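User: My collaborator sent over this chain with a note saying "see what the structure looks like." That's all I know about it. Can you take a look?
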Amino acid sequence: MDKKKIAWCITGSGHYLKESIELLLTLENVDLYLSKAGEEVLKWYNYDLSIFKKKKIKIFKDITSSSAPVSLLYESVYKLIVISPATSNTIALMAQGISTNLVTNMFAQAGKCEVHSLVFACDTEPVVITQAPKKLVTLYPRDIDLKNYKTLKKFKNVTVVDNVKALKMSLKKLNK
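Assistant: Without extra context I'll predict from the sequence alone. Here is the result:
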């Protein structure tokens, strides 16, 4: 049986955050990576980190300039990187090859180490209805957001999904 782990990364999006966390909590052998915005959004949506600690999920926060935890990729600790949910900012950075935080560094280094990445993109259609902390809101992703989403879908060893059903199916397929 494969003992390698999944690295689950959360960025600053509330779009399907609840569903992403529910799925994450069903997994074994998973570590959690939080961008600074990801840590903030968990608080906005009233998630306490203790829910992860109770499941013995190790938490890595974006507190070092060099994103030191990415070194675990070099040690073949992970078989899969999941970024769910991923903001349009994160998608833009990854699509352009820019690594400025823990999550985008995990993505970049996963690519360099040939570790597959599964990305749940938020801004994928001209109109997106999403859950904000206090109510549903309608968003209108910009053309550049949609372009970056399409660009990222072309990356080698990257699966980009745009809904919860596809996330679950891809995770099941990739988590063998």
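A starting point for your reply to your collaborator: DSSP finds eight helices and eight strands in the chain.
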